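Hi R.,

Here are the chain sequences for the assembly we discussed:
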Amino acid sequence: MRYKLTIEYDGGAYVGWQRQDNGPSIQAALEAAIHAFSGETVQVWGAGRTDAGVHALGQVAHIDLAKATTARVVREAVNHHLKPQRIAVLTVEEAAPNFHARLAAKSRLYRYRIVNRRAPLAIDQGRAWHVQVALDSDAMHDAAQVLVGRHDFSTFRASLCQAKSPVKTLDQLDARRLGEEIEVTARARSFLHHQVRNMVGTLALVGRGKWSKADVAKALAAADRTKGGPTAPPDGLYLVEVRY
Amino acid sequence: MRYKLTIEYDGGAYVGWQRQDNGPSIQAALEAAIHAFSGETVQVWGAGRTDAGVHALGQVAHIDLAKATTARVVREAVNHHLKPQRIAVLTVEEAAPNFHARLAAKSRLYRYRIVNRRAPLAIDQGRAWHVQVALDSDAMHDAAQVLVGRHDFSTFRASLCQAKSPVKTLDQLDARRLGEEIEVTARARSFLHHQVRNMVGTLALVGRGKWSKADVAKALAAADRTKGGPTAPPDGLYLVEVRY
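And here is the predicted structure of the full complex:
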């Protein structure tokens, strides 16, 4: 039986979603918890391979289990064996045999949190990007609209990116201020590696008045990573929702 | 010169606001940071002596410094020397010589966060109370109104409480649901030790249907701690604002 899992995690303690030799990953923690309750060695397929330090409120993954059980038992047992990891399985549903968390995803929604204030972060350390210089969120939102649509996003693509093509369709890129916080929302069928963080790093240049909307358009058209802004830190990034 | 400091902290790493022998306190961390930049040994007077694990978004404290400086320099220097503590000085203002953070406070606003869901907390571990049983927030809000006003709050008072009188005036006690979260807001000139946590623990009994509004009224009238509900954990409690 195939199961669809929706997962929350604090990425700060992990090398990222994907299993790696250099430290604990969310994928490996889930696989260990599933093994501990079922005795089965499964592979957990995630919709988004989030980087070290990136969080999730609604990562989606699928697993196959040979022994008969229920979605409820899977959720309770995996959560039990995950403790004290900073990973929680929010929901488990039975899925069709051909459901694939990564390949079947129709859209991914990311949120990026910037705390824009002079004072350091106490409560939100590791959970947001701290920017001390005042940012103009309206200018950021306006410039962001240049990136919406189907484009070659090479300017915002990490050199390690394994995607076959740099062409993606960005459905939404909004920046809005909520008090001292700026929230950037990005939605697309799929993203290139570091695309959201590179777009946010570029928008921050606009927010501080160093770049104009036209500069963003020029950088995008260059299709060259060296023409883009810096990569925003992972701390502020959350995978919020995956739709199928 | 006397300065008024507004302070944010993650209480999870501390034995509480007040200096104690058994571990790091917020007060001691602030006093050490002030000494590091000014060379002066000061006492930091806080408006609320929050317990171990209790957070602050807007604790207020005052200090006296002999050497001439500016509010801006105090804020920047203290924040610099606080690193990597999970404490941040949000603002510093020059204050009147007779300003007293604790004695002059006209009201204190606390917020208590309950995350009401089956799945464990990943992101909010240590930052909210995790209650798995479904809570009726409307019933909680309704019962809370019994506690608003001037009462003998002995039922909600910790045995260690040092207040002279158990009689306090509670100006506001609201419970409201925001998705899977229930937020309890409490405002009063001052609170007894553990009063907010004991009130929230009691309201949770109402939320899960074990207690009625009348039971809360009866418990309050008993003026006896053994008649009240359990103490809610510190993780969900935030000192939000102190007014003067």
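Chain A touches chain B through 25 residues (CB under 8 Å). The beta strands of chain A are 2-9, 45-46, 55-64, 87-95, 107-116, 129-131, 149-152, 167-178, 181-188, 237-243.

Let me know if anything looks off.

Best,
T.
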